[in-house]
Specification:
By secondary structure, this protein is an alpha/beta fold. It has 8 helices and 7 strands, in the order E-E-E-H-H-E-E-H-E-H-E-H-H-H-H. The model has no long low-confidence stretch (mean pLDDT 94).
């Protein structure tokens, strides 16, 4: 396995997801950030460099993004065609089944649907534009942005928080009053009940 890091510019349409969902509200937040930065060359470069997409080369030379799906989706919706990617592994020589098993063992993929249920690897979408909405992933992002927990290097840590919130909220309630859910989720995030999650900060007073 070649693990030599290589930075290159890739066409976003060529990127394959390694997860099934994003939070559409979180994608919209990235779109607003991009719109704010795009008119300044300095801000645009800084924004892109902060979101270099980690990629694994898979069977048939396909590029599989292992993070920054929200960023990639947001740029595509804004009509941007290319982004910077960091190739951190070349697994092109593996059979497809071995490839996905390896990706799974390395925590470089998350084949779970918008209800948090694990699915077969074949169910993973082929394009960033085919990712489904998981409103609990948006809730997790909003809570992180509000200081409810710290960003952590654990793979898919925001989805772990999303799954935690999924056990405390009904989806219709979340979608009906998202802001109220964020306030309640902030309290839950700081409680002892969440202390096993990556980035947990403190016990609620």
């Amino acid at each position: 396995m070649d693990t030599k890091l290589r930075l290159r510019k890739l066409t976003l349409e060529d990127l394959r997801p390694t997860q099934m969902t994003v939070g559409f509200r979180a994608v919209e937040h990235k779109r607003r950030q991009w719109k704010k930065a795009r008119d300044s060359r300095h801000d645009r470069r800084h924004f892109i460099e902060d979101h270099i997409i980690p990629v694994v080369i898979g069977p048939k030379g396909k590029y599989f993004a292992t993070d920054h799906h929200h960023f990639a989706r947001a740029l595509m919706e804004e009509g941007v065609e290319r982004a910077l990617a960091l190739i951190h592994a070349d697994l092109a020589g593996l059979p497809m089944t071995t490839f996905w098993n390896f990706m799974d063992q390395k925590s470089w993929c998350r084949p779970c649907d918008d209800h948090g249920h694990r699915r077969d690897f074949d169910a993973l979408p082929k394009s960033m534009l085919d990712l489904r909405d998981d409103p609990f992933r948006s809730l997790a992002a909003a809570v992180e942005d509000a200081g409810g927990y710290a960003k952590d290097a654990v793979p898919f840590s925001e989805f772990l928080w999303a799954d935690f919130f999924r056990t405390h909220f009904r989806r219709p309630t979340l979608e009906k009053d998202f802001d109220a859910a964020v306030e309640r989720a902030l309290h839950l995030a700081r409680s002892k009940e969440a202390d096993y999650l990556p980035g947990w900060c403190c016990t609620a007073k």
